[in-house]
Amino acid sequence: MLGLGARTRNAWRVSLIVGGLTTAMITPFAVGGVGRANAAVIGGAATLDDPVSVQFSRAGRDDIGDVHIIGFNDFHGNLEPATLNIYGHFAGGAAYLAKAVKDKQAVYGHQAMTVMAGDGIGAAPLVSQLFSNEPAIEAMNLMHVDFASVGNHEFDKGRAELLRIQNGGCPSTGCIGAPYTVERRGKVSTTSIYPGADFQYLSANVVDTTSGKTLFPALGIKELTTNTGEDVKIGVIGEVLKDTPTIVTPSGVAGLQFQDEADAANRAAQQLKRRGVKTIILVIHQGGSQTFATPVTAPDGCQGNLAGTPIEDIASRLDPSIGVVISGHTHQEYRCTLTLGGTSRLITSASSFGRVLTDITLTVNERTGRLVAASASNAIVDNALNPTRDPITGKNNVRQPDPSKEDPTVKAVVSQYVTAAAPLANKVVGKITGDLTRTDTNTTGETTLGDVIADAQLASTAPAAFGGAQIAFMNPGGIRADIIANFQAGTEAPGEVTYGEAFTVQPFGNSLVTKTMTGDQVRLLLEQQFPGCGGQTTKRILQISAGLVYQQSPTAATCAGHVGTISVNGVALNPTDSVRVTMNNFLATGGDGFTTFNLGTNALGGAQDIDSFTTYLAANPAGVSPPALTRITLV
Predict the structure, then answer these.
(1) CA-CA distance, 505 to 409, in Å (whole number)?
(2) What residues have CB less than 8 Å from 225, skipping those under 6 apart?
(3) Angle CA 346–105–73, to nearest 5
(4) Residue 573 burial by CB count (10 A; 0-12/13-18/19+): exposed, middle or buried?
(5) What was the pLDDT predicted at 290?
(6) Per-residue model confidence as pLDDT tens digits over 412-439
(7) Which residues constitute the domain of residue 356?
(8) In what order do the strands lie in the sheet with 14-16?
(9) pLDDT tens string 526-565
(10) What's the rounded Cα separation, in Å, for the pair 319 and 455?
(11) Is the link from the previous residue into 171 a cis peptide, with omega within 30 of 0?
């Protein structure tokens, strides 16, 4: 039980395989009848109201009963509702998600378990990040989550910190988030020591290379009571995308192997079946995408964009006993069905930030324990009395909170951290000698703040062990505010930069990625800044680090004509040259239309962008000066 018996809600009904799988002792399981010779048939919901279900077998005369899986993903510590919205609704926030979850738990009782498909923490707003992501865990504890797959952002601060998040205890900075609200046997109290997660993280495909065991248990089992009063065992496998090492800092995943998702899930399914568990779900931090209408008011269904995505490939190779896949990572909302080789599955995702909640009904043969059917609904977690836009004028509305939709206990926790974050947000992290802005003053698109952010990212990834970067790029849309030298948010002196100011500039929590690109690919990338070039739809000028200089011709008649000479550290960049290039993970996968980044090879993950930025500021105690805008020159 990994010491969870005293903490986990209904712990007597939950079973964990301690230490996970020792992969060296298990041979891969070949899935019969689930080859890739034929394309998968994909269907799904066209609107939120559409029923989506899968029939797995006929129950015959055997008794059947229903149990429920309540699921969400990619919460990312969004404690406050702020301006979060989806499909024209203001939605999300911890207190609102908690009430939606607990309302369903109250209806279903022992018929339900609650799961989270990764990235519950990390890439979070300041209120959660300032307290080492502990508030997000505290909120999910109060939501009575049972199991969670690890996500890539769970590894942002490294393996040791993730283990602390699971098991409890104070970080090196102390338990500055105390008092922590805990719930034991229905009674709410507080403690001065961070208590850890009441739920169990699962990581079937994350293996310690020294011990050969999974970092967290590969799977868990929970016994639920059907609506007819019979007990059935439900097996849960938890995983993260195998490419996690390419999008997090190397030190954070040192000594860990991230295995193929389908292979690891199939091994875990075999072990569950040996333990007599016949109904199995996969909770995985990897996903697909959707096709949306314009304006985006509801999805158009899963046919199309889900095909060819990682989750389609993984689901197509799973053991037939895994009938339901609860996915995440892509921040999409969908309920899909996938059929291949005579095997059908239900695949769901609940968007992100607590804006959507999934309710899956599992119909189980109570005699054999096998899954008979599964259906899923997604519901918006509304947090306001009004929609995002005025129905008459079409203008954006100011959110009008709906207190009746908040859980009072979680609301109090959120209020505690919002209040406590105010002075911490004013912590001085560095100095500037002049304004750093997003203003393009030389008509090339280059800005002082963009240059500094790119310089910071280069400094973080230039050491050989962290990428060996030679140049860095930053997307202008990821720079959300200026830093003004004489602006004082609190008690800081003129020119001092607070953490709150730095965080406002880069609030997304993106991770740095360093890739090898050729000189020709760098040229294609720079051409792709202009509309009509490489599929680009609008002009977007990438911010560049010191050492990279190129000529730009915005009015050129051809894509090739937009970019003149290019040099790196004073040396002309030739088409066949190799150069190590840093960008954030958003750009690394083709964000903002920069698909040329996908051509890069030998990817290595790095620190989060906000950490890179604040470290760079602190490393220049005399102050960072606005750089001269001479890196991009007009032809």
Answers:
(1) 32
(2) 67, 109, 110, 111, 231, 232
(3) 45
(4) buried
(5) 72
(6) 999 999 999 987 788 899 999 999 999 9
(7) 11-159+181-414
(8) 14-16, 219-225, 231-240, 279-285, 322-326, 343-350, 333-340, 41-44
(9) 999 999 999 888 899 999 999 999 999 999 999 999 999 9
(10) 47
(11) no
Pair (352, 442) in one structural domain: no
479 and 370 assigned to the same domain:
no
548-552 and 632-634: which strand pairing?
A: parallel
Is the bond preceding 554 in cis, omega lying within 30 degrees of 0?
A: no
Q: Which two tokens stand for residue 307?
A: 């095909």
Instruction: Determine, yes or no, domain membership for 24.
Output: yes
Contact of 277 with 235, CB cutoff 8 Å: yes
- Token readout for 311 is 């989750």
Distance (Å, rounded) from C-alpha 162 to C-alpha 154?
6
**Can you tell me the distance from the alpha carbon of 140 to that of 64, in angstroms, rounded to the nearest whole number?**
31
CA 328 to chain centre: 7
d(CA 118, CA 464): 30
Report if pTM > 0.85: no
Give the C-alpha separation, 242 to 261, whole Å: 6
Name the nearest CA neighbour of 578 among 516, 525, 529: 516
Name the token pair of 374.
């599964």
DSSP string, 190-203: EESS----SSEEE-
**Which residues are bridge partners to 10 per DSSP?**
none
The residues, any chain, with a CB within 8 Å of residue 606's CB and separated by 6 or more, are: 249, 250, 457, 460, 461, 466, 467, 511, 512, 513, 514, 582, 612
Comparing CA positions, the residue from 554, 549, 536 lying closest to residue 445 is: 554
Structure tokens at 252: 């954070």
CA distance 282 to 481: 40
State CA 66 to chain mean position distance: 31
β-partners of residue 108 are none
Domain end residue (candidates: 368, 387, 414): 414
Residue 134, sorted as left (phi over 0), alpha (psi -120 to 50) or beta, turns out to be alpha
Q: Which residues of the chain have pLDDT under 70?
A: 1-38, 59-61, 291-301, 303-305, 489
Contact 515, 601 (CB under 8 A): yes
- Please report, for the domain that includes residue 514, its CATH number: 3.90.780.10
